[in-house]
What does this fold into?
Amino acid sequence: MKHTAATLKKAIHFRHRGKGAVLIEELRIGCGYVGAADRAIDVWAIEPNASKGCSAVSYEVKISRSDFAKDMKDPLKQRGARLFSDQFYFVTPPGLLAAREVPDWAGLLEPHPSATEEWPYLHAVVTAPIRSKDAPSWPLVVSMLRREAIMLPELAL
It folds into this structure.
């Protein structure tokens, strides 16, 4: 099975099946274009369960080593994703990264060797540490609403 960004994102959705989670792809950290507001989380998932702290996970999909290396040269690249999540995972095709390459603040998920298109199961090569996330900022909330809301057409007056 060939692993693409789309198949890995499908596997992330599969990971949260049956939990009532809210998943947003390409979630920008802010609502403008200054600073790091234009940076996006590949997939952000939140479990709507207050008794469990509404746990949130950020996923960064990497298909190439060069893309991962580029991110590692910019220590602020995943800052926003990490701020608003309890866990942060890189999701890659099998064998793209070695466990020792994963930063201590992240985890690594790969498709399970027996994964299929119908059962795109991910397994943890490195389990992400759990941290306390920050409360969402208003720019993040606006970005979520823009990403998922149905935009009304302009009314002609």
Summary: Residues 5-15 form the longest helix (11 residues). The longest strand covers residues 22-28.
